[in-house]
Amino acid sequence: MKTLKQCFTAAATAAMLVTGLGQPAVADETCNSPYMSRLIKGQEQFLHVWTLGVKGMGDGSDKLVTVDSDPKSKTYGKVIHSLSVGGRGEAHHVGFSDDRKFIWAGRLDDSKIFIIDVGTDPAKPKVVKTITDFAAKTGYVGPHTYYAMPGRMLIQALSNTKDHSGVSGLAMYSNAGELIETYPMPKDQADIGGGDGYAYDIAINARKNVLLTSSFTGWTNYMMDFSKVLADPAAMKNFGNTMVIWDLKAMKPKKVLDVPGAPLEIRWNLAEGQDWAITSTALTSKLWLVKEDAKGEWQAKDVGNIGDPSKVPFPVDISINADGKGLWVNTFSDGTARFYDMTNPEKPKQVYEKVIGKQLNMVSQSWDGKRVYFTSSIFSLWDKKGADDEQFLKAYDWDGKELTKKFELDFYALKLGRAHHMKFSAKSDVASSDASLLTSRR
């Protein structure tokens, strides 16, 4: 039997042979790293939901909940597995390794990272390694974004061990879970436009040799009750207002972009020749476009409002269509999903909206855009209180005009906790390497 390290090494070698650092592949969910070598060609069979434990509810532990998402299955729309990882550490985001066989799942409070095998049997994930010294080794806390690189995992953290502010950085790990290097976010770096040191998301356009990062807030804010954050003028000043253009190959920041209002999730247009990215700002309810100007310089531009900014809808997650022509935007405060026509990225046009629940956070859509999934939790201390604290997974079909609900799971009624981040998976005969699909992102 191979050791865990040998398995990781073999997988990494295969991934690099298939993709190469400069030749990434498309992935089935548009927010995934382009370096993933295994694709879901059709219907996703499983949906993994990283879930925050709630004291006194079930086992009270953070867990990876697996839901059958195959309409042909007898257990379609049902929870078929729940993997508890022990304790509650503010479970937040997850990301696939480049071979798509492992999920890295992290917690923002205790900074633990769980490497979970979803390749051997996606219906029954298993923890194969737990990283407990992320903070001690990197100086960062709150590992947030997990972005696959060939044989490696790039992690964006939200905070630091020194003062728990939003000043943070990136950490590169091997697929075996060993730290390779850290990269601080630029702060007051005059030669590239300053920088506030804050961090949040990662997105790569390998065609342009660009790694793009965004910014949010630190531990002192995300581990504070949301009502207290809003009422504290000092806390409200502790949010990021920048995005950073990095030289991907050199892993060095090149330019700081001014994007006020906490720019969160980043989505590149994946269509050939459409090298622009979009983000939303949580505090100002704006869509911002990141694109090269006529001189080849990267610029950020405010291209429109999300809902009524005066009502603070608080946009959170976004998901772009594979052809770049449509964008889902979720707003937490009003529980609404909005769909934008992105045919002209300079002028996004809202063409649809639907209230999904009393609060709303994450959105994931299939590669063909025909299936859309929503979850509810943002942070344990930021979720709404009382009857407004709905915790759910809801699945819809989308025909381009209307969302039609297929199933709904009440995570509180099932005693699972707070539903947060989602990832798709499938059995090996469905999710497989296909070199013919790799060319579109070269």
UniProtKB/TrEMBL annotation:
InterPro entries: Se-bd
Entry keyword set: Signal
Source taxon at top rank: Bacteria
Keyword Cell inner membrane belongs to the record: no
Keyword DNA repair part of the UniProt annotation: no
Signal peptide range in chain numbering: 1-27
A single GO molecular function term of this UniProt record: selenium binding
Similarity section: Belongs to the selenium-binding protein family.
Protein name, per record: Selenium-binding protein 1
